[in-house]
Amino acid sequence: MSRTVYVNGEYVPEAEAKVSVFDRAFLMADGVYEVTSVLGGRLIDFDGHAARLERSLGELGMGMPMSRDELLTIHRELVVRNDLTDGMIYLQVTRGAPGDRDFAFPPEGTPQTVVLFTQSKPGLADSPLAKQGIRVISIPDVRWGRRDIKTVQLLYPSMGKMMAKKAGADDAWMVEDGAVTEGTSNNAYIVKDGTIVTRNLGTEILHGITRAAVLRFAREAQMKVEERAFTIDEAKAADEAFITSASMFVMPVVEIDGDAVGSGAPGPVATRLREIYLEESRKVAV
Ligand code: PLP
């Protein structure tokens, strides 16, 4: 079935969804994106993603192309038009297409490009992978320094996934100055003696929307949380490891660089956090 895609104010069949070759995101990676999960036809943490979109745009000197309410309307319209039950909505906003290539930003008033499309993933929350856990490798983090901005510069994360695939693993954790920053498209955690440890917020990592929710639920459940850097050796010696992202929710990590983490099977903390996250997020989904 052909998808209906939103492009600059119009809902069009995917084959007709086009942007200019002069678009700043195509030429300069000058754009930001968000991915919001849909479960049972409803959006998970839309407000969090809209707030981060506004922040990412602001950090790059751009404003929101429309109000949050209008964005919500488009998300919902795409769910309906594409009969989406479980999956994701991808949104991208760029600095627009000024009609030529130039390093200088386009003149004030150049319309931003706004694209949204759906990705159907039936049974997204029931992934068998969650019962099995994933395997990661470690790779150097050579990305730019403003990883808190969710830009479309995804070449290195994409290469990282390919390095993982080549090594027979599922994903890569990136390491800088001896410490884990995050996964290629997710935040990284370990659990030691009941304490959940994850990298503190800064410009070194993306401020995950799932991370914020999971840490809130963990604290509400009286679990101990430490937001600090940790090493790969510490992760290998941990009782458990896991990742979080909008489309993976909470996903156990059972192997790092070929070494089993804990028992080599998904641990109780990650498993419980996944249940709590899915249950609580569904309750307030819009
Ligand atoms: N870190 C990186 C580098 C990411 O690309 C992502 C998601 O795409 C995340 C973390 C997780 O963020 P969220 O929970 O908002 O999906």
From TrEMBL:
Catalytic reaction annotation: L-isoleucine + 2-oxoglutarate = (S)-3-methyl-2-oxopentanoate + L-glutamate; L-valine + 2-oxoglutarate = 3-methyl-2-oxobutanoate + L-glutamate; L-leucine + 2-oxoglutarate = 4-methyl-2-oxopentanoate + L-glutamate
Keywords: Amino-acid biosynthesis, Aminotransferase, Branched-chain amino acid biosynthesis, Lyase, Pyridoxal phosphate, Transferase
EC number: 2.6.1.42
Superkingdom, natural source: Bacteria
Single GO term (MF): lyase activity
PANTHER family hit by this protein: AMINO-ACID AMINOTRANSFERASE (PTHR42743), AMINODEOXYCHORISMATE LYASE (PTHR42743:SF11)
Keyword Amino-acid biosynthesis: yes
An individual GO BP term: amino acid biosynthetic process
Gene Ontology, cellular component aspect: cytosol
Similarity comment: family membership: Belongs to the class-IV pyridoxal-phosphate-dependent aminotransferase family.
Cofactor dependency: pyridoxal 5'-phosphate
Name under which the protein is recorded: Probable branched-chain-amino-acid aminotransferase
CDD domains, alphabetized: D-AAT_like (cd01558)
Pathway assigned to this chain's UniProt record: Amino-acid biosynthesis; L-isoleucine biosynthesis; L-isoleucine from 2-oxobutanoate: step 4/4; Amino-acid biosynthesis; L-leucine biosynthesis; L-leucine from 3-methyl-2-oxobutanoate: step 4/4; Amino-acid biosynthesis; L-valine biosynthesis; L-valine from pyruvate: step 4/4
Summary of the function given for this chain in its UniProt record: Acts on leucine, isoleucine and valine.
Source organism of the structure: Wenxinia marina DSM 24838
Pfam families: Aminotran_4 (PF01063)
